[in-house]
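> run fold Argininosuccinate synthase
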Amino acid sequence: MKKTTAYQKVASYEAKKNEVKKILLLYSGGLDTSVMLKWIKNQYQAEIVALTLDIGQQHDDLEKIKQKALKLGALKAIVLDAKDEFAEEILTKGIKANACYQGDYHLSTPMGRVILAKKAVEIAKLEKGPQRRDRICR
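> ok
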């Protein structure tokens, strides 16, 4: 007789309820990340730190985005000014490399993901709680 095992997703890490206590959510303030904030809060009862970067986007009211995250249940909402670092470390390299898609579409949006990932790691290290050595993220 075969032994049955519980479902375990292996393509990426999938948190189990009551296992994750604190989450850093990269938060734009739009519909998708707002729904995710509420869903994570309801499903995992975890503390959520919302991170929003200011990389020079013109139409975002960053204070409203911060307040929205808090209203939806974030424990903390961080708006980080990364304009200078984004321009000096990422955009200048993109300009030098003529980073564009099919000649017309400049890749500033995908390049923004680079600084977002970098800052997310930095903030996660600052915000982390006690580390558990018995769990490996896959």
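The chain has a mean pLDDT of 86.
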